[in-house]
Amino acid sequence: MNKSQQILNQLETQQLKRSLKAIGSRQGSQLELANGKNLYNFASNDYLGLSQHPLVLQSFEQAIKTYGAGSGSSRLLAGSFSPQHDLEDQLAELKQQQACLSFSSGYATAVGIIPALCDKDDIIIFDKLCHASLIDGIKLSGAKFKSYKHQNLDQLNSHLQWASQLRKPNSRLIIITESVFSMDGDICDLASIVSLKNQYQAELMLDEAHSIGIFGKTGMGLAHELNLCSDINYHIGTLSKSIGLSGGYLTCSKATKELLINKARSFIYSTAPPPAIAVAAQTSLSLISHCEGLSLRDKLWTNINYLTTQLGPIQNNISPTSAILPFFTKDGSAQQALAWQKELEKQGFWVPAIRYPTVGLNQSRLRISITTQHTRAILDSLIKALSSLN
Ligand SMILES: *Cc1c(COP(=O)(O)O)cnc(C)c1O
């Protein structure tokens, strides 16, 4: 047996093998699979439904007519189009930061910026449940690092003490956390993290992938909502979730942006995303930050509150903290999570099982993503289906 087959067989035995579903329709409350089956979609990060918004689609279409389909090359060669510059200006302004640099994805943002900012003389302290893109960026950078137990600020404090002793003059000490954690849906205690950062003269990198569009009066995320924007040194986000397109960005100081244009390898050595995406993303951001965004957020939070309240009696500790709702199996096994996924699929729902290594070995769960597209009737039928699982 060759090595690939051996690895696949092992994954299969451990119930950890993944496969793809071919979808033949738009992203929405329902997905039509290529095999003709329809499933209610509880797996989308398109929380506000903006990937289907008529104005977003219209600006995308018009921009393709103006700029064509592809960008042709890296931003540093012939691929830096004015819509990308305009998008960066808009994001910097909305996020109340000096500057912004966009990337082809959120993943590319993290693996580009962390190694560009940090080397072996620097120290990074991060929440253990940080997204894979952040962890890969940290490892690639060669910096010294320590993770603290999820949301455990006492341990963050003691790691910062350790780092202060070790720290060389002029080196960086960076804390990295997410605002909304992508698999647990809980939110970090940003105010306390900011005060620790100040106490230890560290810097703070915040990944707002799942909070942009959802938190803050203008939908600009958790730091915005808590009035802590100016305390965040590196503000990472994605255009791929509630903004409804694809791509990533960092808002930061002007000097950091200049450094990244010169050093971030995922920015330099990769073709720029199609300029039309940057045009459509501006439309999306305008919607998010104005009254339409307010009413979409209202609708989303109404759905989040309804679902969490209704699920309260069948699952402990469920709370309306974000649009991500983990639904834990009784024993945390991959086997049970997969069995539940299968049962729900049979009943017409697509609620993915999340397993190792995305979450810890005995932390398998279903992950429910709530969007504005879900009607009360769809939510009620999901609640009924979840209640029948055992
Ligand atoms: C989804 C996600 C990313 C990656 O963003 P993409 O644009 O999908 O590559 C980064 N960080 C977090 C926390 C995420 O959830």
3D architecture notes:
The chain is 42% helix and 15% strand. By secondary structure, it is an alpha/beta fold. The chain has two domains: 20-47 and 294-387, Aspartate Aminotransferase, domain 1 (Alpha-Beta Complex); 54-289, Aspartate Aminotransferase, domain 2, CATH 3.40.640. The strands form three sheets. A seven-stranded mixed β-sheet has the order 3-9-8-7-6-4-5, sandwiched between helices. Helix 7 (190-199) links the parallel strand 6 and strand 7 (203-207). Helix 4 packs across helix 9 (254-263). The chain is globular. The protein starts with a helix and ends with a helix. The mean pLDDT is 96. Bound molecules: pyridoxal-5'-phosphate. The site of pyridoxal-5'-phosphate has 13 residues, from helix 4.
